Amino acid sequence: MSILVVGGAGYIGSHMVKQLSTAGKDVVTLDNLSCGYRDAVKYGEFVQGDLGDPAALDQLFSKHDIDAVMHFGAYIEVGESVRDPARYYRNNVTNTITLLDAMIRHGISNFIFSSTAAIFGEPEYTPIDEAHSREPINPYGRTKLMVENILQDYDSAYGLKSTCLRYFNAAGADPDGELGERHVPETHLIPLVLQAASGRRDDIKVFGNDYPTEDGTCVRDYIHINDLCRAHSLALERMQQTGSSARYNLGNGKGFSVQQVIETTRQLTGRDFRVTLAERRAGDPAVLIANSDLASRQLGWQPEHLDLDTIIASAWKWETGFLCNQK
Known about the structure:
2 domains, seven-stranded parallel sheet, 41% helix, globular
């Protein structure tokens, strides 16, 4: 089987490329390197190009006998999407349509889409299942929901089958220490805390400590990157077996607070670091936890890295290795 991984030089995409390759799949990575890193693509063939370039896509699909496409090439920063929505609609929606149209031209009918919990908006209840209303509150979430709706229409009109996987908080790193999380700027909590522990960052900011949670800080559902990637492989297998599209929420099923992440990091690393309190951010719910029962029933998927210690330890291995490589 030959799989095209769009955005395979990024955080999730690079882990997916490794997992697919080590499972014996033929993998081609397409990435324009606007957010990813060439040295993160350690397996398969790399093609530098843009998913919004029809000619480049036609050339790629003509050269390679691709069976399925996994799409990780979206912009993901919520704040930036509010400041510059045009950039997000152009890349996340328009360019995705260009990719889908190229797939149809070349007879490729299996598509795995990296979606997000941001499509749900403010939670009406937790854990959040697939039946939860979808009312995103920022352009980033709206772009992802738009693509989900487009995929439904493309299935009805053109027979393009898709599986949308709604992540909650992807976290951790390759246990071998070969790959990790590198966002510029970094906005995710665990790498930010680890950068404070390693000295790459002066402090870590806690945005509000008066939420209705046990310790007053926000609670989030962190899913280890390897568990997340394994769900993609299982989703592709099921889609090819059943010939049907699907939508799944993916999470750990339990939440950890900002304060728990900070304390666990201190204990695991043996490092202390400065924590500063800041005002709440608009649109930050107190609790976000996924209900992944549907993925469990239909895909046979269960996260294996359930505890916060394991998730943070894998990310710390990457952080310390990254610092050594910079010296």
